[in-house]
Write a structure and sequence with these properties.
Elements lengths: L4 H11 L3 H5 L14 H11 L2 H15 L1
């Protein structure tokens, strides 16, 4: 979750120095959702990081991207 997607991706792709973010470059945007309230965005982020959420991404987001 971020309020500034451009800055976040710039950091992931150019400034990060360790870990998963560095090893899996380049990062690209394939899906975006907008929320009025931060609590709703955090709730959705947690859903997407769950097993069901990962399945949803695999079955609905990735096929539309590829």
């Amino acid at each position: 979750m971020t309020s500034d997607l451009i800055t976040r991706f710039h950091f992931h792709n150019h400034k990060s120095t360790k870990g998963y973010t560095l090893r899996n470059r380049p990062w690209i945007v394939i899906h975006v959702e907008f929320f009025q309230f931060k609590k709703d965005a955090l709730k959705r982020e947690n859903e997407l990081k769950s097993g069901k959420g990962r399945d949803w991404v695999k079955n609905y987001v990735l096929p539309n991207f590829l």
